[in-house]
Design goal:
Strands 1-3-2 form a three-stranded mixed beta sheet, with no helix packed on it. The mean pLDDT is 96. It has one helix at residues 10-14, and strands at 3-4, 52-54, 61-64. The chain has one helix and three strands, in the order E-H-E-E. The longest helix is centred in the N-terminal third of the chain and has 5 residues, at 10-14. The chain has one domain (3-64): High-Potential Iron-Sulfur Protein, Chain A (Irregular). 7% of the residues lie in helices and 12% in strands. By secondary structure, it is mostly loops. The site of iron/sulfur cluster has 13 residues, from loops.
């Protein structure tokens, strides 16, 4: 069972990942909105109702459904 991604993981830090999208660094990422969340990102591999899911950017880890990183891309 994969472990939850650590926000302090160097790659997570590099991409500005946070478990709670509302906590994203607004100064660094001015285009971020709290509505942008892993669960509605194209790269999220979980189901919409899963609390956590995989993301190819963080292989072997789980990201939070309500999380966010700067590679966010809205699901079509
Ligand atoms: Fe979440 Fe998408 Fe970033 Fe992966 S790429 S951590 S699913 S916002």
């Amino acid at each position: 069972e994969p472990a939850k991604l650590d926000e302090k993981d160097p790659q997570a830090v590099g991409l500005g990942y946070v478990h709670d999208s509302s906590k994203a660094d607004k100064a660094k990422y001015p285009n971020h909105t709290a509505a942008q969340q892993c669960k509605n990102c194209q790269l999220f591999q979980g189901k919409a109702t899963d609390p956590m899911g995989g993301c190819p950017l963080f292989a072997g880890k789980l990201v939070a459904a309500g999380g966010w990183c700067s590679a966010y891309s809205k699901k079509a």
